[in-house]
Design goal:
Elements lengths: L12 H17 L4 H10 L11 E5 L5 H9 L4 E6 L2 H8 L7 E5 L14 E7 L8 H10 L1 E12 L5 H23 L3 H12 L3 H10 L3 E7 L8 E7 L6
Parallel strand pairs: 1-2, 1-4, 2-3, 4-5
Antiparallel strand pairs: 5-7, 6-7
């Protein structure tokens, strides 16, 4: 059993999100730039033609904020979005979506059993990889779902390489995120997990190495604007073309 520094077992993380689901949109909506930064990461995938003719996967879609960002970047694409938290997914499904968007309840480890199969032209994973028990194995599995030449984008916190970013993260968590989460839900477990899991996650350079180790090429990253500069990043990578 893999346990992170909060004491939460990885298989308990979806349950923590279930508990926080009803208040989740309200809390992240109070974060300046949260939705705009998701849209920025989706735009950085540079999906052509507004997504016309493309099939995209939103991995770990939560309440649908990342799905909306992907839809804004590629309004004509077919989007399959999945999440392991039933309550987060229920919040997503209550929103208005075009018929090209489909939601599936599934952990990332069981996509085939849940009817999700490739190939996809692009995969967007927001705040997912940090919460996986086997990030290397699941990155390889996600790459296997991509078409050759397809783009993978991870929108993720990464502060290990920067003392300034870690100090900002500590300050924001303990002055805003954890107290607000406790008030909104009566339980700060999810938000303490967020604080600790970000501190434990890869630095920017290490995560780029992890992506390369999973077989991706053209790996690079770009950060955000505002208070999340140096704290949240878009990691971009390509599934290499098949040999001629």
């Amino acid at each position: 059993m893999t346990v992170d520094r909060t004491g939460l077992a990885r298989h308990e993380v979806p349950g923590a999100f279930d508990t926080g689901a009803a208040a989740y949109d309200r809390l992240v909506g109070a974060n300046p730039g949260y939705h705009e930064h998701l849209r920025l990461s989706a735009r950085r995938m540079r999906l052509p033609g507004g997504g016309r003719g493309l099939r995209l996967l939103d991995a770990g879609c939560g309440t649908g904020a990342s799905t909306a960002a992907l839809l804004a970047a590629a309004p004509h694409a077919e989007i399959v979005a999945f999440d392991a938290s039933a309550e987060m997914l229920a919040q997503a499904r209550r929103k208005s979506w075009p018929p090209t968007v489909h939601f599936v309840h599934s952990p990332v480890e069981e996509l085939a059993a849940s009817g999700i199969s490739g190939p996809f032209d692009g995969i967007f994973a927001a705040y997912l990889i940090r919460n996986l028990a086997d990030p290397d194995g699941q990155l390889r599995a996600l790459r296997a779902l991509l078409k050759p030449g397809g783009t993978f984008a991870a929108h993720e916190y990464s502060v290990r390489d920067s003392l300034a970013a870690r100090l900002v993260w500590h300050a924001v968590c303990w002055s805003i995120i954890i107290p607000a989460g406790r008030v909104a839900t009566g339980d700060a477990t999810l938000y303490r997990h967020l604080w600790r899991s970000v501190l434990a996650f890869d630095g920017v350079a290490r995560f780029r190495q992890r992506l390369a180790g999973a077989g991706f090429t053209a790996v690079h990253s770009e950060t955000m604007t505002g208070w999340q500069r140096g704290v949240v990043h878009t990691f971009l990578a390509t599934n290499p073309e098949e040999p001629a």
